[in-house]
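A favour, since you know our structure tokens better than I do. Would you make up a two-line entry for one protein for me to read? Write everything out right here, beneath this request.
=====
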Amino acid sequence: MKQFRFIESRKNAQWSFQLSDGRIIEVMTLDGKFVFKFDTPINLETREIGSQPPYTPGALDNVELPDGFTTLNQLTKQKLGKTLYCYDEYEINLGYKPNMTIKKAIRIAKEFQKNGFMVTPQAIMHNYDAWKAGWKVGYRDEENGYHLFTPCGGNPFDLRATTLEECCADWQITYLC
């Protein structure tokens, strides 16, 4: 019987789930391995991980679970817990047609700074230029301790800053794709 574990801190896993009673469930280990998926049946008392139901689009809400089992998706829907990450993050979404200037980048950088991230206007312009060209982009700033992510140009212009964490070094890099 496979079991999950409760952890002491969100820093002990890349992803975790905090129950409303404060207990934290490890969902993704520090080395990036999923313990179980959000739609996998789990038993909070025995810590047992049930069998992953076969995936049928739209059908997972109707899967009958064994007695005593729930899923993280159900707990989220019932507002009985929330997802946690080992990193802190702050996000600014500017929509599909932002008009970016250096002045605007400076204002955005100030908002990030008010929220604990020393994002530079240069990083914002770097991600904006890549987004305008249709790229998905990440920008790692070691000196200021953050990673700035923007989805590809088919999405709204979104800037998502995260604190640097050693266990996330595989994706907290500077890239275009």
User: Anything to note?
Assistant: The mean pLDDT is 94. The longest helix spans residues 102-114.
